[in-house]
């Protein structure tokens, strides 16, 4: 009888015990999940006692010449007091998300993008134009590990600061450029693919100045096979700090002075070189009115940051090199690379529907014949309004 009751009690209580175990297991799991962004430290450990007093001391994160002093207010958010659900004990934990956010913020002052070598051709030979530069990137996960280890294990750097703060070394990754000087011989740049030119005779001095500043930026630019080129992205900021002067630009139905006026001479000339080279044109915009500096009309490329861009793609099997030069009042662009057998024929530009007030249209056709005999035609249409429709505001800097 006793054994029978014992078996019955076991049979009844076993499911209850298993059910309770499952429920508490789920609660424990969910509690662990909710604390995933924290590093808990037991109050019974020596590390925990130190962790509780850490925010009273200074903290400095370092990388070579760079020093980041963590303010007491910021530091206090990294260490938190909390109560354990089951034990009720007061413990401390490190908030990893707070540390990550801080590292993401200072990364803006550390990270530097690598730059490729830029080259120049002189007398048919590739010459060094500027060397490649390594980039650097703050390794946030490993730097966070260093910080947590230092805080919990007193594993600070041996470096000293004038005020005696604790020092923690940041982890920095070096990024190699895609094109360094030791790869120059493998580029295969040996052929002039295309050339473009334009004449800016009669331009005022500020315009001539801006053309020279802008043209230099593109001299020595290398494009990898398959790489897309953006004029605006390569050009960068256009303002006084970049060396530009105010000069007339076409904007909003007016011709007004702005910094960098005349840069369309650069984009137009580069467009002509890209067309002659047979490179794939991805984006091109004609001007709103005919501009005498871009004769013949229909072979221009207007740019304005954030509005219109000149884009093309290196669809050749090798690197291409862009070179610019100025001789007198003429601007030249040359594009060098490796011939893949493509031939380029340009028809036009042809002006038509020309009005007495100067308004007109133009069409330019390019036919590319590839080595396998296939052909591709590109048609560039332009429509220009009359100059009289645009109010010209005199440049006060002339």
List key phrases describing it:
398 residues, alpha+beta, 8 helices, 23 strands, elongated, disordered C terminus
Residue share in helix:
25-40%
Overall 3D geometry?
A: elongated
- Domain count: the total is 2
Count of helical regions? 8
Rg, please?
Answer: 33 Å
This entry's quaternary arrangement is single chain
Count the strands? 23
Strand content: 25-35%
Flag low-confidence runs: 22-36, 41-46, 391-398
Terminal residue distance: 116 Å
Determine the mean pLDDT.
Answer: 79
> In this structure, how is the largest beta sheet organized?
4 strands, antiparallel
**Helix/strand structural class:** alpha+beta
Please state how the strands of the largest beta sheet are arranged side by side: 11-19-18-12
Q: Outline of this structure?
A:
This protein is α+β, with helices and mostly antiparallel strands.
Summarize the structure in words:
By secondary structure, this protein is of the alpha+beta class. It has two domains: 37-174, Ubiquitin-like (UB roll); 187-392, no CATH class. The chain has helices at residues 2-34, 46-53, 72-76, 96-110, 140-153, 205-218, 231-235, 263-277, and strands spanning 38-41, 59-63, 66-70, 79-83, 90-95, 118-122, 125-130, 135-138, 166-169, 172-175, 191-199, 221-223, 228-230, 246-251, 254-259, 280-283, 311-313, 320-327, 330-337, 343-352, 360-369, 375-384, 391-392. It has a four-stranded antiparallel β-sheet with strand order 11-19-18-12. The protein has a three-stranded antiparallel β-sheet with strand order 1-5-4. Strands 3-2-9 form a three-stranded mixed β-sheet. The relative contact order is 0.11. Mean pLDDT is 79; it is low at 22-36, 41-46 and 391-398.
